[in-house]
Amino acid sequence: MITADLFRDPSDRTTPIRLGEGASLLPGFACDRAEAVFAALEEVLRQAPLRRMRTPGGHVMTVAMTCCGDRGWTSDADGYRYAARDPASGRPWPPMPEVFAELATDAASAAGYPAFVPDTCLINRYVAEAKLSPHQDRDERDLSHPIVSLSLGLPARFQFGGRHRSERLLRTTLEHGDVVVWGGASRLAYHGVLPLATGRHPMTGDCRYNLSFRRAG
Ligand code: SIN
Ligand code: FE2
Prior knowledge:
This protein is mainly β. It has one domain: Alpha-ketoglutarate-dependent dioxygenase AlkB-like (Jelly Rolls, Sandwich), CATH 2.60.120.590. Helices cover about 10% and strands about 30% of the residues. The chain contains 2 helices and 14 strands; from the N terminus they run βββαβββαββββββββ. The strands form 3 sheets. It has a 7-stranded antiparallel β-sheet with strand order 2-3-12-9-14-7-4, with helices on one face. Strands 1-11-10-13-8 form a 5-stranded mixed β-sheet, with no helix packed on it. It starts with a strand and ends with a strand. Fe (ii) ion (FE2) binds near residues 135, 137 and 191.
């Protein structure tokens, strides 16, 4: 697999970086609301605790996940799908906090996707060595809506490619408060996260969170 490192000026926290057609990284877009988002996240996690899901192939994922909103993404022996209830508790997923939805709408709009209203947020927690192999987000019903992805806590090496697995993957570091938005021609772009390096972040401790906002229904 071919990869290339994307140049990124660490002192520039305002200029969007193009990752592909219809895909941008908004450096530090959420820094000023990270604290409010994190407080809301902690409340969601109390209601729907993180869990390591099993892939249809029988592997236990290294990333721990949960969801909020009208539906939530789940994986088990039967496959990947969106479900209205948390299979771990049998209860509906916690409602999406307003600060989450506002951030997603604002970031989408800044990236050229006005009026995006998410109906679900997939929450991923990475501890040291946790990773996500390159994949497409394709379980949503209407692919005209973008994916809005927020990073909190420890930095991660992110990979972003094209519609085909064989296409070149760009690599870039995602920092606390960064938002990546992909839609349009990039909606089915392959993306992944390399094994997380050990570290400590003042807000999240020894981990990284990724919140990805989607319109799934
Ligand atoms: C995902 O693809 O669901 C998460 C990507 C990330 O953690 O940055
Ligand atoms: Fe994904």
